[in-house]
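$ fold --in a.seq
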Amino acid sequence: MISKNSHYSLEKLTANSKNPKFLGEVFAFAEQKYGFVKRQNFGEPYIEHVSNVAKILANMNVDETTIAAGILHDVADLHGREEEKGAVLGELEKKFGEEIATLVERNSDLQRIYYSFHAGRKESVLTSAKAETLRRMFLAIARDLRVVLIELA
């Protein structure tokens, strides 16, 4: 599923980590969940995208929890159904802990806010609905800056 170059980089990333077994388990879980699914707007396999996110976050010298959340950041929204999202977040919490599940959930919320804000780009007026969207986005950012780092990576 992962290209040869990405696979080598991921092996290097996990080997250089403080807990290679943990990141290996995160990657294995991600491969299982993402499978061969491609990102809708880019055509790139999700697993390639999150591998790149992991490398960027590692280069930022963030902790392994943030890297793990970066790898898993699209898992909850993969199929777009709210009931599946809750089940996946529960599975993440059980397997990797509350902190990672919370980061993934907040990233999902931030993505949803961002895309809802940009849905009506043609409007140049800041409506009360868009102002509320911005307020929620800033609140998500204020709760944990790592959510923003994951999104930017």
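$ fold --in b.seq
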Amino acid sequence: MRSLRFRLTFAFLIVGVLGVAVGAIVASHRASGAFREFTFARNQEGLVTTLVSYYEAHGNWDDLPGAFQPPGPMGGGAPNIPLREPGILLVTDAEGRVVVPGPGGEEGDLLSEDMLADATPLESGGVTIGWLVVPEDAFARTRGEEQFLGQLN
């Protein structure tokens, strides 16, 4: 028969190992989430800059759908913005009328106040010139981001 001391030591050892494992899993999950939020914010910021630059160069949103295509296998498109797929973004003018159709709106539709409340304002000179609606999964991860997340997990 084993002693009580042995059983308690073994139980504390098991609890300690489980605690470390759970802590590592929680830390890894939180770090992955924070990294995804960071890359989303960085990509969204680049997209906003590109859209505002387009508006400032042209003075309107005319021809934006044709000029603003995500990069494809043959290159071209918006530089350094890794969109997951075409048609994932929605861009409106200052009044909320859709100029680049995407989920939740066709070209010419007027977005609801609820959708605009969740949208990112596009501003130039302190004036709102449009709105951007981007789902959280809009951006494809780059190879470097995939490698980092693979090493993190």
